[in-house]
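Protocol step 4 of 5: obtain the predicted structure for the target chain.
Materials: sequence only (see below). No template structures provided, no constraints applied. The aim of this step is simply to have a reference model before the mutagenesis design in step 5. Sequence pasted as it appears in the construct record:
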Amino acid sequence: MSGVSAVRTILVIGIGAGDPGQLTLAAAEAMRRADVFFLLDKGAEKHDLIALRQELLARFARPEHRVVEVRDPDRDRTADGYVTAVDQWRRDRADLLEEAVAAHLPDGGCGAFLVWGDPALYDSTLAVVEEIQARGRVALEHTVIPGVSSVATLAARHRVGLNRVGRAFLVTTGRRLAERLPADVDDIVVMLDANCSFTHYLDEDFDIFWGAYLGTTDEILVAGRLSEVAERIVETRREARRRKGWIMDTYLLRRRDPAAEA
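Step 4 output (structure tokens):
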């Protein structure tokens, strides 16, 4: 029907935790499909995050691809309520990305967002795309290409499994861990922990497997009994953040098994 615009396609591509070798074949093929890549710029102190994505584009995208950088809005950390602040932050992101897609991706074109780790795990990109679709001002359809998460990379680097035989494990945030220790779960993966919430549980008999900048040349790993290495992790994390201006880290807390030590 005349007057009806062709739908734009957005590929939400998981690119792994930072190591170009973790890019899947499906992700590489998706990158070759895209005409335009929309990158969220998080400021000068995190410019190396843009540089890592540009390295992937140089290796896997078509030579004629275009890059549109969008300044990532700051989240209001003074707002009353964490969830409210995050919801507003996502709406602000949707505003900027909707505008960028409308301006730089032609009708019927294929654009892509490159997402650290896996788009389904503690990342806002899918929610932002769904927000844009719900508004109805820009006709979009989207496809998700999974990636190697920082959680998988953490386990691989420490050469441990995430679960033990017949037992569950939990993936949660530092904010939730600080509120309480989950009941009936002895293996806890913690993400987004700016306050080192593991220090609340030094009296508990846990091992910790911690990693920062996983999959990059700056990768740092620490493992051991929580009560013995917690201070070292806190200091290492503080110094790494001071040096680079930012940090991305995650860890596994594992309750020690007295039966295994007997």
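Step 4 remarks: The mean pLDDT is 92. The helical segments are 25-33, 47-60, 82-104, 125-135, 150-158, 174-179, 226-244, 258-261.
Proceed to step 5.
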